[in-house]
Structures are given as structure tokens and as C-alpha cells.
């Protein structure tokens, strides 16, 4: 059940919040109080937020109310009640990555994406639960307990950005930031029935995003509608002197052309994504969703992306290799918790033993193994080569089509606890999202009907590198045509 926000009975959106503030129908303080109350009412059962930041939220609200009182222009996202995944650094606010090892860590700076949203008027409500260090697809790997899916309380919200998705779906935020390394924005968006976007690698600065796998990590928004995703993308995208991998490619106005007709656009449907393992109810919804795009005038081409079957293995070698290197910094010396020991090595061992959860340890071991002498060529180097082939599949497809359309996940939200004992089954469910992650292309998940049990299905749309505008346009057309109800 989704809570209905009180904006004359309608859901708040970025535009309606800003208009209500400008028209003095509500003050930013009242709006903030309303969202704090909603969080208080629902967070105990959902566990979507790990920490709240009321002082910072009210400070921003007072600033905005001051602008209104003085009759000054409001910034573009004025009053947006925002939730931020707990792997994004927030100055002075505890940032744990849902790990014990960072349980008391307060970053001295803000992530660029957070800073840009606040500068545009967003109100930071708090930090959201996730899989520990973003490693997972169900949110069950959080050291602080799982998140429940607000659409079906006995089910997972997806992961790793499960708290961000649940917060938005339950009306405890109007939008949220998540991070996507192998599907962690798109898949929870699909499980909770909201649109969610992974930008091109390098489109949004990673400064302040606590690293899991640096060549894959991206910051992306989750919201109630595609237009809000476009507004957020326009705010957070663009180069950043603090991140040399943030590309200085000019950021287009994502609202321009958002509502343009999609007639004549060529959509590719890779047959490789409709093979064994795809749930029949999901398949049916996706086929209906693709027909809807065809009714809007899109031209469908079935195509092959032959290296898709290697994507999961490739992803789990590269992601774990990079993670084992990135997580070496948590040694009890520089950040977070320390468990004392008689010798330096003992201190490391005890700190990391107590500070990291089982999945994080598993990945550090896998990654260390893949990078070790004698195995590096056989595993890591081979994976890098296959990654290039997967990227090539995308490049070839984009010679024929404007976008690639697939399911976001082979299954809808599963039951809490259903898959925790089988990590491999959990990894295999990432099959449709990790391909685009490895290729660096942008992708969105947009609601595409519900199964008979009422579980949301997500349609994934991939675009060309830096082609977010096209992806948003297709998703917008799909949403407007009633895609969520197919
Ligand atoms: N489920 C994938 C994993 O466990 C993706 C995680 C992510 O995108 N952060 O690695």
C-alpha cells in the first residue's frame, strides 16, 4: 500500500512542490514537517531510512521560506523532499554504507550530487538504507536490517538502493538518490514500481560516492515520474573538478524534447534477454509494454547481443576485484571502527572481521583471488576482454536502433529471506542490468504493469552513451501512454 501525500489528494512532484511554495499554499517548514511525520509513521516498519537530518532540512526550509518572504526567485528544485542513499557522503551526517565498519563515520564534505541538489533547493531529509557497501540486490545485506517493500510488505524492495526506492514509493520522499554499479538503482525502482535512472558512466560526478567498483559506480535518481528524473538529471549531471572521470560533456536541457513524439524511433529487442530464467509473468508484461511502444509508433527490431550470457560472470569478477582494492582502506587506522589487537595484523584482522558482513567478506576474497599472481590473466584480464565484447554488442546494436528495450529484472520482488542462502541465485538475477553497467551506457527502469499478485514489473530502456535525453523521452512517452497499467 502506498501512502498518498496530501497535495489536494495528489502526489507531490518537483513542480507541484515548487509551485505550492511560490504560491504560499504551504511553507517549506510545513512541507518538511509533513515529510518528517510521514517518515515517523512508516519508517519503523519499512526501515527505509537509517538516519534523519532534521536540522539540516529545517535550515534549508528556512532559507527557502526567506526567499518566498522576500519575493525572490525560487531555485529549480525548491523544496524537493529528498532522500539520499547512505553510500553518498554528507557533511556532518553519519554515513555508514550500511556497514558496522563505518557506524560512526561523519564525512567532512558533501558528495557533488548532494551539493548540487541542495544548491538547487532540495531539502535533505535523511540517509537511506542499502546493502552493505552497495553489494547486493535485495537490501538484505545491510548491517542494520533489511528494508521492506512498501508495495508488498513480506517482500524485498530490491537493492542495493532499496531504502531509496522504498522511501519514494511509500511517500517518505518525493525523490531519492541511489547508486548503480550493476543495477542498484534500476532494479529496486522496478521492484517498488517507480522509475529510476542510471546515467552514462561519467555523466554524474562520483565525488563523495564511497567506492564499491570504481569503473562501474554511478549516481542516479529515483522518483515518482519520469519528468522528475529529468529535472534531477539536469541538476546533477556534468563535469566536476573533484572527479576526473566526470566527463565535461555539455548537459542538455532534459526537459527540452521530453514530450516529443516517439514515432519513428527504432527500438531493439535483444532475443538473448528473453531466454531461460525469465519469469513468465514478467515476460508477458514486457511484451505488452513493447507493443505499447509500437502503438506509439516505435519501430521494433529483434536483434542479438551474443555476449549477454557472459555478463554476470564478467561483472562479478570485475566488481569484486575493484571492491577488494577499494575496501582495503578500512583497516581500523583511518576510518570508522577499530577493534584493538596485540599486534598490527591482529588489529586489522579483528577490525575487519567484526566490521564487515558476510557478503562483503565474500567479495573481498573473490576479488583478491581474481587479482592474485597466477590468476590475474585467467580471471581479471579475461573478464576485461569480455567486457569489451559486451560493450561492442551495444555499439553494434546502436548502429541499427535508437534504444534497446529489455526487462529490468527476470523476476519481480521476491520474499524476504527467499534467496539469502544462495548467493549465486542472487547474482544471476542481475543478468539484465549488469550488461549496461559493463558497457557504460545509460539505462532507465520504468513501471510496466503488475503481475497477478500485484507486484510491479520494470521495463528497461538503454540508450547510447550520453544519450540520456532519448532514454528519458521514450520513458516519458511510455509512462504517459499508461505503461504502469499495461
Ligand atoms: N546486485 C548487484 C551486486 O550485488 C548490483 C549492486 C549495485 O549496483 N550496487 O553487485
Give structural notes.
This protein has 486 residues and is an alpha/beta fold. It folds into 3 domains: 14-236, Amidase signature (AS) domain (Amidase signature (AS) enzymes); 266-308 and 382-485, Alpha-Beta Complex (Amidase signature (AS) enzymes), CATH 3.90.1300.10; 313-377, no CATH class. Helix content is 39%, strand content 12%. It contains 15 helices and 11 strands. The chain has helices spanning 14-22, 28-46, 54-69, 112-119, 162-169, 186-192, 226-236, 280-295, 311-326, 344-355, 358-371, 376-400, 423-428, 431-439, 468-480, and strands spanning 49-52, 81-85, 123-128, 175-180, 196-198, 218-223, 266-270, 299-303, 403-407, 443-450, 456-462. Strand 7, helix 8 (280-295) and strand 8 form a beta-alpha-beta unit. The longest helix is centred in the last third of the chain and has 25 residues, at 376-400. The model has no long low-confidence stretch (mean pLDDT 97). Bound molecules: glutamine. Glutamine is lined by residues 134-137, 160, 180-184, 212, 319, 430. Glutamine (GLN) is lined by residues 134-137, 160, 180-184, 212, 319, 430.
What layout of secondary structure does this protein have?
Elements (H helix, E strand, L loop, with lengths): L13 H9 L5 H19 L2 E4 L1 H16 L11 E5 L26 H8 L3 E6 L33 H8 L5 E6 L5 H7 L3 E3 L19 E6 L2 H11 L29 E5 L9 H16 L3 E5 L7 H16 L17 H12 L2 H14 L4 H25 L2 E5 L15 H6 L2 H9 L3 E8 L5 E7 L5 H13 L6
Parallel strand pairs: 2-3, 2-4, 7-8, 7-9
Antiparallel strand pairs: 1-3, 4-6, 5-10, 9-11, 10-11
Helix pairs in contact: 2-3, 5-6, 7-15, 9-11, 9-12, 9-14, 12-14
The chain binds glutamine (GLN).
